[in-house]
Write a structure and sequence with these properties.
single chain; alpha/beta; 28% strand; four-stranded antiparallel beta sheet; 231 residues
Length: 231
């Protein structure tokens, strides 16, 4: 498989405080990569830097061979990024369907029907206001909204946060199905080890803004990961 996403020597700072220092990460076509780490280790900063909400002090970000390091978030979405932020940021006063439509490309007029096949509960509640959905339903909604832009690389920041275990298991199944059927590359930041192992082809661990461990899913030593995630 050829590389679709490549981050090289990325450095991101808040003022003079370095949060990510020289990090490099890649993801192949149709690969799911889980970026694990405790709170405060730089996972969300990495996600925001890849989508363009934070500027890189140095380093590069390439999507499909195109350098998007200085591109705006809008330009990155147009180039093929989809982004699901931490915290389930729905538009609460809009309906489910209206939320999904906000993610469409300018050339599209209605939400792809397969999104409702991946998340049937959204079809049942398409006329309901998003603010009235449960946390798990809202998470499915923001993923569907990101998929509406037909991305090549889907970035998910802490998608299991505050979601009940049964929904977490179903989310892992659906993300792998979406990857298989739509040919997506997925990068997901995560703290829940069981979810990462259920969804990912490869697992990397962040600590203090750097990658400190990497392993294909089939070679993962859960004891080692557990120790790294408890430091």
């Amino acid at each position: 498989m050829s590389l679709l996403l490549r981050v090289d020597a990325l450095k991101v700072c808040y003022g003079e405080s370095e949060v990510i220092g020289g990090l490099s990460l890649c993801a192949a076509e149709k690969e799911i990569v889980a970026v694990m780490g405790l709170n405060g280790m730089g996972k969300t900063t990495l996600m925001k830097a890849m989508i363009g909400l934070l500027s890189a002090r140095s380093g590069t970000i390439h999507l499909g061979g195109k350098d998007v390091t200085r591109a705006t978030p809008f330009e990155r979405v147009a180039a093929g990024f989809g982004y699901v932020p931490q915290g389930r940021m729905v538009f609460p006063a809009l309906t489910v369907e209206e939320n999904i439509v906000t993610g469409l490309r300018a050339s599209d007029r209605e939400a792809p029907q397969e999104l409702y096949e991946y998340f049937p509960v959204l079809k049942e509640m398409k006329r309901r206001r998003a603010g009235n959905l449960s946390g798990g339903q809202q998470q499915q909604l923001v993923i569907a909204r990101a998929l509406a832009s037909r991305p090549r690389v889907l970035l998910l920041d802490e998608p299991t946060e505050g979601i009940q275990p049964s929904i977490i298991k179903e989310l892992a199944v659906q993300l792998r199905r979406i990857r298989d059927e739509k040919g997506l590359t997925i990068v997901v930041s995560e703290q829940v080890l069981s979810f990462a192992l259920a969804v990912a082809d490869r697992v990397v661990v962040m600590s203090r803004g750097s990658l400190v461990h990497e392993s294909p899913r089939k070679d993962v030593d859960e004891a080692t990961l557990g120790r790294l995630l408890s430091l």
